[in-house]
Each structure stands twice: as C-alpha cells, then as structure tokens.
Design the sequence.
C-alpha cells in the first residue's frame, strides 16, 4: 500500500465527500463498515506479521487483542447503525413546547456530525 504523495489532495477528497452529504446515507455508512470488515479479514495475516515484528505478539494474541475486537466492533456497528441514525423525540421546556402541543408539531432531534476523521494505516505486505 503506497503512502499518498499529496496528503492535501487526499484530505480535500475526504472533505468533498463529506460535504456532498453522501456520508449521511445509511447505505454509504453500511458499505464503509463492510469494506472495513473485509479489509480486516483479508489483511489479518499481514496485521499479525506486523504486530509480531513490531511488538513480538503471537498471532493468536494479535487476533485476541487487536483484530478480533475490531471485527466485533464493526459487526456491532452494522447491527446498530439504523437505530443509531434514527431521530429521537425531544422534550422542550420552553414556550415552543406549548405551541408544539397546541399545533401538534412533532419535535425530533437528529444528530449531525461536522467533522472528518482520517485514519492513516500502513500495512506491511
């Protein structure tokens, strides 16, 4: 896996993707999680070799402490994704709450994230 020549262009591409709104779609998030799961499964041996070289970890220990928990976390995220993305009803203790009740307005809270996280990983291979 090659290191990007121009990190700025990679960051711009990530920002453009985020700003396009595609990252708000459940299907996009699910595909990203599945791709991460595939990467972990495909590169499990490479990860184990790197951990053995760098930290002296046995392959079983690598899976138990590193790869296995990540796979479990990704599967957990895949199961909870739809629920986590759903909007939540909120209670407002202001005058709008009284108006909302009077006019039967449904108040819902939807989480929005406004940041980009980049994880840079180098796999020895």
Sequence:
């Amino acid at each position: 896996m090659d290191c990007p020549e121009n990190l700025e262009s990679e960051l711009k591409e990530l920002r453009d993707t985020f700003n396009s709104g595609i990252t708000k779609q459940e299907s996009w998030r699910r595909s990203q999680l599945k791709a991460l799961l595939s990467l972990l499964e495909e590169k499990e041996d490479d990860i184990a070799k790197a951990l053995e070289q760098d930290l002296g970890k046995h392959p079983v220990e690598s899976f138990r402490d590193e790869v296995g928990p990540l796979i479990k976390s990704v599967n957990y995220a895949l199961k909870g994704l739809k629920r986590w993305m759903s909007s939540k009803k909120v209670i407002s203790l202001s005058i709008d709450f009284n108006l909302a009740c009077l006019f039967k307005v449904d108040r819902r809270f939807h989480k929005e994230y406004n940041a980009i996280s980049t994880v840079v990983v180098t796999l020895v291979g």
